[in-house]
Specification:
The protein contains three helices and no strands. The longest helix has 35 residues. It starts with a helix and ends with a helix. Helix 1 packs antiparallel against helix 2. Helix content is 93%, strand content 0%. By secondary structure, the protein is mainly α. The radius of gyration is 14 Å and the shape is flat.
């Protein structure tokens, strides 16, 4: 397993988690319209987050470390 495989797996996991969280958020905020059309912004945000997942992970680790101490 090389670094490219690790990046792709991380991007895939980040894409799905982000997509579902954003789509659910749109559904909760906007009801049926959010459920019907919320996949569009969810797809866009997930696509961007998938490329930036190492940065997102670094920020999450930093936040957890700050909250831990």
């Amino acid at each position: 397993m090389d670094i490219g495989d690790v990046y792709e797996v991380g991007a895939w996991i980040t894409w799905w988690i982000t997509f579902l969280v954003v789509w659910i958020g749109c559904s909760v905020d906007y009801g049926f319209l959010g459920f019907a059309l919320g996949w569009i912004p969810a797809y866009i945000v997930a696509y961007i987050a998938a490329y930036l997942w190492p940065l997102i992970l670094l920020v999450l680790v930093f936040v957890v470390m700050k909250l831990w101490h």
